[in-house]
Amino acid sequence: MYGSTDENQYFCIGFEVAKSTFMDKMEINRQSGYAMLDCLIENNFPFALYRLPGEEEPNLVMQETEETCLRLNNLTELDGRTGFVVAPFLVRVQTPVILIRPEIVLRGETAIFDHLRNKKWTIPSRISPLAGRDETFSGLFASYAETYRRFQVGLEEEHLKKLVLSRIVTEGRTADFSAGRTFERAKRRYPDHFVYLCHTPETGTWLGCSPELLFSGKRRHGHTVALAGTLLADGKSRWDRKNLDEQQIVTDYIKEQLEKAGYPYQAYGPFSVRSGNLLHLKTEFSFPLSDAASVGQLLQALHPTPAVCGLPKEEAQAFILENEKIDRRYYSGFLGGINLGDRTDLYVNLRCAEINTHSLRIYAGGGILPSSHLQSEWEETENKLQTIRSLLRTEGGFESIEK
């Protein structure tokens, strides 16, 4: 016999309370699981935690031994390699290509958290050479404006078609900041982005939410995109000639590189895609691969594209190194899994922050053409910075140290 209405009501209330308590405990367990990633960073273990666009579960690639990450001096050396690659804007002695060896490869929160909880970690003896990288770079308008004018002169006098100007905003890190929990928040907020948290002794710690694919390959099928042009997703703004020209420059460059490499391709676009509070213009390319494990030459040809560098590539890269006031390091490089399972997924390192002991260095940039305007370019970088800044504000993880 069923109980009275009051008894049923009390039972339902009790059930809801128990359910709520259970869900709260589940969420606490998830948060504590992601917080364990902070321990890996503190103990200087090389690892990459990442979530591919459109997927639910994160992936972990990790080294547990004292063996150092593989250092490469050329992108072509990636042929036949397996692991998680972190490549800089420019490969040089200070910023080599780093490959995290896939000693541990796990998929899904349950498998990852179980492994981290059950493992008896020993603190490695190696010390990160980047422990003191907490210098402040100004992200203020006056500094940006000065460099912007230098770039406009470069476009005119050196006959460059496009340059990409970047800036850094440095924020003070608070004591309760958690890189692992911030990754989990980014994963939920940006489901269509490549979201990652990566640490190696050579590169330091990076967190990002990239909307831009550089290359993906699965079996005998390859893909890349031309992503350029930026609008605020306010429902009012419209694509102007500057943004259309900027995207066309990137599209033409990728077409040229694929043709030179002998890849017959199909192109679709451009079309608008949303990235957080912004819109971009995107053209997709698909092409057949004879050997998905050997794409080093193609990566060497593509990277860096005019979306993050300029055109012509070599001249633009040299100009940026000489005239940009910041050291990009691994910002506007690329990273991702290479030949893991049957696929490669490499994304441009955008909308990212370099996490240091006492600060976070947040990066953003934008394409400069002769038709660009200083104020609109500045506002574009401000809007791009919000991708990471919004995550940190929610986390309570930083306090401004800029005037």
Task: Give the low-pLDDT segments.
Answer: 10-26, 123-138
Characterize the overall form: globular
- Using the CA coordinates, give the radius of gyration: 23 Å
The proportion of residues forming helix, as a percent range, comes to 25-40%
State the distance separating the first and last CA atoms: 72 Å
Characterise the protein shown here.
This protein is an alpha+beta fold and 403 residues long. Helix content is 34%, strand content 30%. The chain has eight helices and 19 strands. Strands 1, 2, 6, 7, 8, 9, 14, 17, 18 and 19 form a ten-stranded antiparallel β-sheet that branches. It has a nine-stranded antiparallel β-sheet with strand order 3-5-4-15-16-10-11-13-12. Strand 1 (47-51) and strand 2 (59-62) form a beta hairpin. Helix 4 (179-189) packs across helix 8 (374-395). The longest helix has 38 residues, at 5-42. The protein is globular, with a radius of gyration of 23 Å. The termini are far apart. Residues 10-26 and 123-138 have low confidence and may be disordered.
